């Protein structure tokens, strides 16, 4: 439950330009950019984001307008200044949900598979519009029982058009913090955040300690955490995200829902744009794929095995021949 905000429950907030009045029911949440209240309007309940920074409110409003209709983010309703105070606000659809848990236990495995699939579907819709979420932390994803879709996103403060620098991020789910790529807005940045949430929800990292370590230590931590991930086949999918082999929500969703049978072993970088050419992103699990039928190459273990079989057959034939006095 959030601490007290600047508006107490029961106060009226009036819009300076529209004259609309809003009755504050309670504080929903507070963060670096402002406070969000549950309010009553003439048309029912809504959420009001209030900040002393006019620029932040205007920027978030413009992103919400751009995403209006069919995204997982709340629908925008009204923007105004608070009458009688240097405060700015917008009113949006209220999402009556609970934030995703920051921590999970092995008993939550099935639930996590479902949650992650819904998040990936929501990201897919956002990416179709050319934006990345960029601040995909559990507090910004609300689970709404009985609603369709049952999961929604809040806080457009970090939402950034593809190709720009990420403005707002959280280290635990930041691709650059883990040395897995750039801090530039692209679909893979969000997928990386989602995969990082999956891993860190099971094994909480000591971010302060890791921040002072070289990047290789952070990656080693991640590799260890992946080895202990309770669903090995899905750990392979997460590795593919970290290695840049899964770069679209559709490819991720396909791999997540139909995971490969064997986990790949190490965090790799083969397909990552920073380390090599950009892969097409359609491969569910490039590192685990067998070569096409007919072109399959035998490695040295095959040869050793067939050699052993042939020599055993020879020894057996010689023994039978000697016993039957053929030689
Ligand atoms: N439309 C909404 N419906 C319901 N709850 C909401 C809504 N918008 C925001 N919240 C709640 O308020 C919290 C804070 O909102 P928001 O993230 O927009 O503020 P912020 O100042 O940008 O926070 P942060 O510093 O974490 O980015 C959210 O985590 C969420 O719990």
Describe this structure in words.
Residues 22-327 form the Protein kinase domain. GO terms for molecular function: ATP binding; protein kinase activity. It comes from Alicyclobacillus cellulosilyticus. There is one protein chain. The protein is an alpha+beta fold and 327 residues long. Helices cover 34% and strands 16% of the residues. It has helices at 54-66, 109-128, 187-202, 207-211, 215-227, 232-242, 249-257, 300-323; strands at 12-14, 21-31, 34-41, 44-51, 76-81, 88-92, 98-99, 131-132, 141-143, 151-153, 160-161. It has a 6-stranded antiparallel β-sheet with strand order 1-2-3-4-6-5, covered by helices on one side. α2 (109-128) runs antiparallel to α3 and α3 (187-202) packs antiparallel against α6 (232-242). 36% of the residues are buried.
CATH top level assignment of the largest domain:
Mainly Alpha
CATH superfamily of the largest domain: Transferase(Phosphotransferase) domain 1
**What Rg is obtained from the alpha carbons, in whole angstroms?**
27 Å
Number of separate strands: 11
Overall pLDDT confidence: 83
Order of helices and strands: EEEEHEEEHEEEEHHHHHH
In the residues, how many domains can be counted? 2
Oligomerization: single chain
Computed structural class: alpha+beta
Helix content percent band: 25-40%
Provide a count of the helices: 8
Per CATH, which architecture of the largest domain? Orthogonal Bundle
Furnish the topology, listing elements before pairings:
Layout: E1 12-14, E2 21-31, E3 34-41, E4 44-51, H1 54-66, E5 76-81, E6 88-92, E7 98-99, H2 109-128, E8 131-132, E9 141-143, E10 151-153, E11 160-161, H3 187-202, H4 207-211, H5 215-227, H6 232-242, H7 249-257, H8 300-323
Antiparallel strand pairs: 1-2, 2-3, 3-4, 4-6, 5-6, 7-9, 8-11, 9-10
This protein binds adenosine-5'-triphosphate.
The site of adenosine-5'-triphosphate has 19 residues, from strand 2, strand 3 and strand 4.
